[in-house]
């Protein structure tokens, strides 16, 4: 495929690696007792000790139990992977947990990751609602995130708490060493972060419509916590219930991204259950992991059925509109994807829901839209008035255009999201289908 500048801006080489990042806890004050810190020594060393001869000796080293918190792994974003590596001197992690002194449980944890003072990712977990959950967060993206980080994505981002977009938690959080103390050692080994977080940035000042908002999805399932850190005591709060994973699922992923199993030969995973391979005409759901039911759209001549894609390796749908400025700007990118994957049996659908005036699109307008924006002949342009037929069968969890949906040969929905900056995640879903995953 001929790579255009637009293509280079949005197509990334996936980096699969694990990093190690280390941060020291806040040093103890000389007045802090071993009981308050959770150490198991008989007494804290004084600044110096004098033997019987009157000479001054170096105090013994402090125990390393809580001297360093670590994060193992990396995070994947819809722009590029970010590796926090302890090999870089200025990489750091600060982990600040809190525990209830009366009941001896940890019920809050803040994790702050950074690289050389930049690329700051902050995640705040609490037991709101009775179980661990991500309740706050921020992301400052810049060149410190890595050489592959796109300059166009530089911005300060805020966590979107829409449960359809953000679902993340921490697992295996232990009790602190001495929970009744105001400060206690917490061993982090075995603690892991799961799920994904959606962040939103500022409105793009170059958007003539004043609507385009940068968004980035961060996948956290490759992030682990280790080492030790100090937990601060609090007077109130309940103890969390254990997070339940893969509830009622035998295959695929749960909402937190945990792998729940695979299906045997001749079956495929749909809605968390193994079912016979093949398209399901009536469908069995509208969300990712479900078989999407058939849809019939009228064309200028005849009609087009969604399940025509059952004869293709995959189906890529772009939800667009005549009034959508960024749909026009990104048209060359979508056309480059067509050049790259159409010969591999992927079917590309251009689903036009409204015209330039915001009125319901017709089949003839969809054909006009395709010609006006110079889409290749192989694109199937469909007029779906206000996208009502699509939305009756398939749910895209975030608003806006352009939006993407990716289905496999069994019409199982693999990806559906409106992401105005990056189609990276949608493309990765397509690559997995083509690789038989």
- Strand percentage lies at 25-35%
Number of domains: 2
Broad shape:
elongated
Largest sheet: 13 strands, mixed
Low-confidence stretches: 1-64
Structural class: mainly beta
Provide mean pLDDT, rounded: 77
Write down the Rg: 26 Å
Terminal Cα separation, in Å? 23 Å
State the helicity in percent bands.
10-25%
| Total DSSP E strands | 24
Walk me through this protein's architecture.
With 437 residues, the chain is mainly β. The protein is built from seven helices and 24 strands. The chain has helices spanning 5-10, 34-37, 325-329, 331-341, 363-372, 388-393, 424-434, and strands at residues 19-23, 49-50, 56-57, 69-77, 81-83, 91-100, 105-115, 118-126, 133-141, 155-160, 167-171, 183-187, 191-203, 213-219, 223-234, 267-270, 273-276, 296-298, 303-305, 314-320, 346-352, 380-383, 403-408, 413-418. The longest helix is centred in the last third of the chain and has 11 residues, at 331-341. The model is unreliable at 1-64 (pLDDT under 50).
Features:
single chain; 437 residues; mainly beta; Glutaredoxin; 7 helices; disordered N terminus
Topology summary:
Blueprint: H1 5-10, E1 19-23, H2 34-37, E2 49-50, E3 56-57, E4 69-77, E5 81-83, E6 91-100, E7 105-115, E8 118-126, E9 133-141, E10 155-160, E11 167-171, E12 183-187, E13 191-203, E14 213-219, E15 223-234, E16 267-270, E17 273-276, E18 296-298, E19 303-305, E20 314-320, H3 325-329, H4 331-341, E21 346-352, H5 363-372, E22 380-383, H6 388-393, E23 403-408, E24 413-418, H7 424-434
Parallel strand pairs: 6-15, 20-21, 21-22
Antiparallel strand pairs: 1-4, 2-3, 4-5, 4-14, 4-15, 6-7, 7-8, 8-9, 9-10, 10-13, 11-13, 12-15, 13-14, 13-15, 16-17, 18-19, 20-23, 23-24
């Amino acid at each position: 495929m001929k790579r255009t500048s637009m293509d280079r801006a949005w197509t990334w080489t996936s980096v699969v690696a694990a990093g190690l990042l280390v941060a020291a806890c806040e040093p103890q004050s000389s007045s802090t007792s071993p009981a308050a810190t959770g150490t198991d020594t008989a007494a804290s060393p004084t600044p110096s000790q004098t033997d019987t001869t009157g000479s001054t000796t170096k105090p013994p080293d402090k125990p390393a139990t809580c001297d360093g918190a670590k994060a193992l792994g990396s995070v994947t974003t819809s722009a590029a992977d970010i590796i926090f590596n302890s090999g870089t001197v200025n990489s750091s992690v600060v982990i600040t947990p809190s525990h209830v002194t009366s009941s001896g449980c940890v019920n809050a944890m803040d994790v702050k990751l950074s690289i050389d003072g930049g690329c700051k990712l902050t995640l705040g977990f609490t037991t709101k609602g009775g179980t661990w959950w991500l309740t706050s967060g921020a992301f400052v993206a810049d060149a410190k995130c890595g050489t592959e980080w796109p300059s166009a994505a530089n911005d300060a981002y805020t966590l979107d708490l829409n449960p359809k977009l953000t679902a993340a938690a921490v697992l295996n959080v232990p009790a602190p060493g001495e929970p009744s103390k105001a400060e206690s050692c917490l061993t982090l080994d075995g603690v892991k972060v799961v799920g994904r977080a959606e962040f939103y940035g500022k409105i793009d000042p170059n958007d003539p419509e004043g609507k385009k908002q940068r968004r980035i999805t961060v996948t956290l399932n490759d992030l682990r916590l280790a080492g030790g850190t100090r937990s601060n005591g609090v007077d109130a709060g309940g103890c969390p219930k254990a997070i339940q994973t893969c509830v009622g699922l035998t295959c695929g992923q749960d909402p937190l991204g945990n792998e729940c199993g695979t299906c045997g030969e001749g079956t495929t995973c749909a809605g968390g259950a193994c079912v016979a391979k093949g398209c399901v005409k009536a469908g069995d759901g509208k969300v990712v992991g479900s078989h999407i039911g058939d849809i019939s759209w009228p064309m200028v001549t005849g009609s087009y059925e969604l399940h025509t894609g059952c004869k293709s390796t995959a189906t890529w749908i772009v939800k667009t509109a005549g009034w959508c400025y960024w749909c026009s700007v990104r048209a060359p990118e979508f056309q480059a994807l067509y050049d790259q994957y159409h010969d591999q049996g992927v079917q590309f659908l251009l689903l036009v829901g409204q015209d330039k005036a915001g009125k319901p699109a017709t089949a003839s307008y969809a054909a006009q839209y395709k010609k006006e924006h110079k889409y290749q002949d192989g694109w199937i342009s469909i007029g779906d008035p206000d996208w009502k037929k699509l939305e009756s069968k398939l749910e895209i969890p975030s608003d806006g255009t352009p939006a993407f949906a990716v289905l496999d040969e069994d019409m199982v929905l693999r990806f559906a999201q409106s992401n105005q900056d990056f189609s990276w995640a949608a493309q990765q879903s397509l690559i997995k289908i083509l690789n038989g995953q």
